[in-house]
Amino acid sequence: MSLAIRPEITSSFRDDEEQAAAAVPLLAAASPTRSRSHAGDVHILSAAFLFVFSAYLPTQNLQSTLNDDGNLGAVSMGIVYVSFTGFAATAAVVVRGLGSRGALLLGTSGYALFILANLHPTWYTMVPASIYLGFASSIMWVGQGTYLTSAAFSHATENKLNDGQVLGRFNGEFWGMFASTQVIGNLISLVVLRNDKDGGGAEEKNLLFTVFLGCMVVGIVLMFLLSRRDESIGVEGGDHELPEKSLLWDMSKSAVAPLADRRMLLLAPLLAYYGLQKAFVWAVFTKSIVTPVLGVAGVGGAMALYGTSGVISSLVAGRLTTGLYSSTLIVSAGAVLQAGVLFWLLFFYSPVGGVLGSAAPLLVGAVWGVGDGILNTQLSALIGLLFKDKEAAFALGKMWQAAATAAVFFLSPGATLQGMLAAVAAALVVALTAFLSLSLVVERSYALKL
């Protein structure tokens, strides 16, 4: 039997890292008495993201088509992810200072501001909103990963369950709900823009973004209902009182520590591919494959189907996750599906009319969504299982993702469809090779401990 299927393998790495983490004087204040279960907090977190991203994701999907004057939409999205990449380096320190719940609340404000900017899209409104959204989203996503992982481990400890199974189940629920935002949000845009084939109607666009602002408000309210899981960092650390400068220095060092971890370096190509394949859908798939056949109004329908398949695959993958071995098999299956789509688009696809021509973009979106849902659940679970310093690991993971996403948004306006497809395919090969190497490294390291 492969050693990697043993659930102890991930606990062993957490135990090893605890000694190093103990030297970092971070405040770990006890949470106040809670009346809600850890699973209940995950339900609320998932629902909050459902409302926030039901508004944001379809807005992002439509940037390259609705705001195409001077490529304003594509450039704005590129700025978002460049800003995200820059701020991700310090996101772990910010999240530790604010607490994961505080980071979630502040992060949501960036998405609301970006929706507001789309009501009057100019370079003077979109660029500042994009820069702030990059900062806000970097801390929000680190806060999300830290909050969910904390809830999963607490639930597993209190109920004497396997960490990997609980983390997989919680991530499956969260990412299943998150994937459904592509269904709900894009169905909203499909209904509102149904009579706006070229995306030029100001009245329809304003109505759409007003509805999205309402969704944002509901999401923010739900964020306020989350239980507090950690307190803001102060100058006291447990039983020891430390100078504030010393504490912040130790926090900063621990935030970049995963850069020297071989596991993070081997996981980085898959994290980067995750961001790249998402940006490919948002910036290339919607503009170059869906719009020529189905029009701007059809983007909502295609992305809704993409989201539906992502919901199903997220829930199934989450339930099947038990540890590194299961994740390796699940990620490999998702990679094969996306490789098949890329191969078909590269060598066989050409836009045609009729029913079959209209069905092709929908089929591509559905299959691609399965692979995306798999990556959603598995990457979050892997970071939670393999790394003790959750904030730093999630921050670095998001940095790799954001850098790859930004590259696609900046390069796609001047690149051909075939060139983008070839680049994504090459990135997938590199990512899967590095990930399989990670599985072997972790298994070998565990074997040496026996």
TrEMBL record:
Main location: membrane
UniProt name for this protein: UNC93-like protein 3
Membrane topology recorded in Swiss-Prot or TrEMBL: Multi-pass membrane protein
Naturally occurring in which organism (per UniProt): Lolium multiflorum
Superkingdom field: Eukaryota
InterPro entries in the record: Ion_channel_UNC-93, MFS_trans_sf, UN933_plant, UNC-93_regulatory
Family the entry assigns: Belongs to the unc-93 family.
Transferase found in the keyword field: no
Gene Ontology CC entries for this record: membrane
Subcellular location: Membrane
Record-linked Pfam families: UNC-93 (PF05978)
An example Gene Ontology biological process: potassium ion homeostasis
SUPFAM superfamilies associated with the record: MFS general substrate transporter
Keywords (A to Z) from UniProt: Membrane, Transmembrane, Transmembrane helix
Annotated transmembrane regions: 42-59, 71-95, 102-119, 131-153, 174-194, 206-226, 264-285, 291-317, 329-350, 362-387, 399-415, 421-442
